[in-house]
Amino acid sequence: MNKPLNPLNPLNPLTIVRLANFVAPASGGLRTALRELGAGYLAAGHRPVLIVPGERFSDRETGQGRVITLPGPVLPGTGGYRVLTDRRRVAALLETLVPDRLEVSDRTTLRWTGVWARRARVPAVMVSHETADGVLRTWGVPPGLARRTSDAFNLRTAHHYARVVCTTEFAEREFVRIGARNVVRAPLGVDLDGRRPGLRDAAVRARYARPDEVLLVMCSRLSVEKRPGAALDALEALLRGGRRAALVVAGDGPLRARLVRRARERGLPVTFLGHVADRAHLGVLQASADVCLAPGPAETFGLAALEAMACGTPVVVSVSSALPEVVGSAGATAADTGEAFGAAVRMLMDRPEGERRAAARARAECFGWSAAVEAFLAAHDAPARAGQRPQVPAPDRTLLPGLPLLPDPPLPPGRRLLPGVPRPRSG
Asked: Are 240 and 335 members of one domain?
């Protein structure tokens, strides 16, 4: 495929092919973002196609558009996450789909798709869902080395894609630091109808906490970069300070067994629900909590925190993450220690209940999915409604000062690698 940048009929709906790794049935924020953005693209009249790894091949039409699953192995130590490792098969599928735009939500194992897109003359964006240096630090890499490594990594990412999409100013900083000029901001959103204060249920609250206890809830993947142990640290700090409290953990991951063992050994009042597949029930839980905890230090947006706020529940967030930018004065910011998180919970609970819950909801109302979809379509230079004339970014602009883009090598001939899939049409 050697598709020209300007479609023959620029008023046609755009085929927006999206690629993502690390998406599993128990995924949280990324899965939600992919679903809501796809549904928004579809409602705008475009043709979204999502390619993700799974146990076996499937191809189906859904409420978020076409979803194609390619077989991908489980990545050890991640609690079930799969990755797309067969580059030839992915490339052949891309050539068959003939995308007008490419959107990639994994800047590690899928970064090669930026090179494919440049060869195919397809404008492509990379969505930054986490900060590279933040993730490296959570894995124990010293700050100086983490920064140098992430800068080198981000430099190549900025070269490979027409644009890098960051959901917050916090996420944008590591690209600004290296002088990237192709970074755009596009915040995520929250379902303001599905998440609302009216979901609060006294019976659900009573199931997990007594009337004199503070009910804490953490909705998070239980993995190293999310620092879920900080929620148990906060609970212990509150109990030591004489504040009665209980914690509910909604989420699963490789650290679950260790956290369960720790809670049992220390006699902590913690309920582990595992992955909550019923989103309506999760909303009721978030609305029924007194405070939600979001301790992940590398978060670049924090959808679970925003969902809790939409339910009228304030959130304590890590000062090291992007969440202070998201929650504003409606939540509380804490250093990455149990004592600091416990103190932030006490501060929120000292505010009148009606005041703190109204502030949380009002802040969440600043983030609707419709605005998020429009921002992502603008990042693609795509019309907010099919039938409007899209803009197409110039192919030869310099994205980094003094560092021109690499020349486009010729495309290899198309190959038929997927059974039953026709050869790609030419541009």
From this structure: yes
Sign of CA dihedral 219, 224, 226, 228: positive
Q: What is the pLDDT of residue 7?
A: 42
Question: Looking at residues 350-354, what average pLDDT do you find?
Answer: 96
Distance of CA 216 to the CA centre of its chain: 23
Q: How far apart are CA 371 and CA 378, in angstroms?
A: 11
Residue range 229-271, pLDDT digits in tens: 999 999 999 999 999 999 999 999 899 999 999 999 999 999 9
* Residue 78 within a domain: yes
pLDDT digits (tens, 9 = 90+) for 122-175: 999 999 877 777 777 777 788 888 888 888 888 888 888 999 999 988 889 889
Same domain? 41 vs 86: yes
Within 10 A of 212 (CB to CB), how many other CB atoms are there? Answer: 8
Task: Give Cβ neighbours of residue 21 (< 8 Å, ≥ 6 apart).
Answer: 52, 53, 72, 81, 82, 83, 84, 105, 106, 108, 109, 110
What's the Rg (C-alpha) of the chain? Answer: 22
Strand duo 315-318 + 270-274: pairing: unpaired
400 belongs to a structural domain: no
> Per the domain annotation, does 398 fall within a domain?
no
What's the whole-number average pLDDT of the chain?
85
Please state whether beta strands 58-62 and 65-71 pair in parallel, antiparallel, or not at all (unpaired). antiparallel
Tell me the CATH number at 102.
Answer: 3.40.50.2000
Check residue 28 and give its pLDDT.
Answer: 67
Which residues, other chains included, contact 390 with Cβ-Cβ below 8 Å and sequence gap of 6+?
10, 14, 381, 382, 383
Beta bridge partners of 163: 125
CA distance 59 to 48: 13
Helix crossing, 143-160 with 112-119: angle to 10°? 20
Let me know if residue 9 belongs to a domain: no
pLDDT at 324 over 60: yes
Q: Are residues 281 and 348 in the same domain?
A: yes
Annotate 370-420 with DSSP letters as a single string.
HHHHHHHHHHTT--SSBTBPPP---TT---BTTBPPPP-PPPPPP---STT
Q: Do 357 and 247 belong together in one domain?
A: yes
Residue span of the structural domain in which 23 resides: 15-189+369-379
